[in-house]
Amino acid sequence: MIVSAAAFAYTFTFKEFKNVPVGPEFFPRALAVCLFVCCLILFLTNLKSTSSNKGEAPTLSPLNKDMQRALLGLAIIVVYALLWNVTGFIITTPFAIFAMTRLLGKKEYLKMAIVSVVATAVIFIVFKFILGIEMPLGFIENYL
Q1: By the 8 A CB rule, do 138 and 86 touch?
Q2: Which residues contact 135 (CB under 8 A, 6 or more apart)?
Q3: Quick one: which of 4, 38, 39, 70 has the most CB atoms within 10 Å?
Q4: Cα-Cα-Cα-Cα dihedral of 111, 116, 121, 122, to 10°?
């Protein structure tokens, strides 16, 4: 709940645009409010059910296969974020999409590669030409 409150407060530092009905702060604020509400529901549910929970709570172990997949997914996202400005959206995104679909259990590699490249192209075209938002191109920016 503290993290969601801090994220909500941080959105007040975003640059405000005149004549724009929905600014860049809208979506992060909405997510922060949803996160706060979900945390509050979990907290209240936990308070209500603590008297009936007499058994041992399940623990999360790095030896658990699902936990390993979750940590690997987090690692893919972190590497993607670190490479975002260096290699750019067009190069980094297909690899990230491919890795995440493989992590989810898909094994049709040709189809995964095609979907990764096409999805990246569609997202890039929508952001650049329809929404007018520049995506980082990394080192290939000098060649385009």
Answers
A1: yes
A2: 88, 89, 90, 124, 127, 128
A3: 4
A4: 80
- The structure's pTM equals 0.64
pLDDT of the residue at 58: 66
For residue 68, the one-letter residue type is Q
* Structural contact between residues 14 and 25, judged by C-beta atoms closer than 8 angstroms: yes
pLDDT band at 49 (very low <50, low <70, confident <90, very high): low
> What CA dihedral angle connects 90, 16, 38 and 1, to 10 degrees?
110
CB 137 within 8 A of CB 90: yes
Confidence class of residue 142 from pLDDT cuts 50, 70 and 90? confident
The Cα diameter of the chain in Å comes to 64
Phi, psi of 51, rounded to the nearest 5 degrees: -70, -30
In DSSP notation, the chain reads -HHHHHHHHHGGGSPP-TT-SS-TTHHHHHHHHHHHHHHHHHHHHHHHHTTT--SPPP---TTSHHHHHHHHHHHHHHHHHHHHHHH-HHHHHHHHHHHHHHHTT---HHHHHHHHHHHHHHHHHIIIIIS--PPP-GGGGGT-
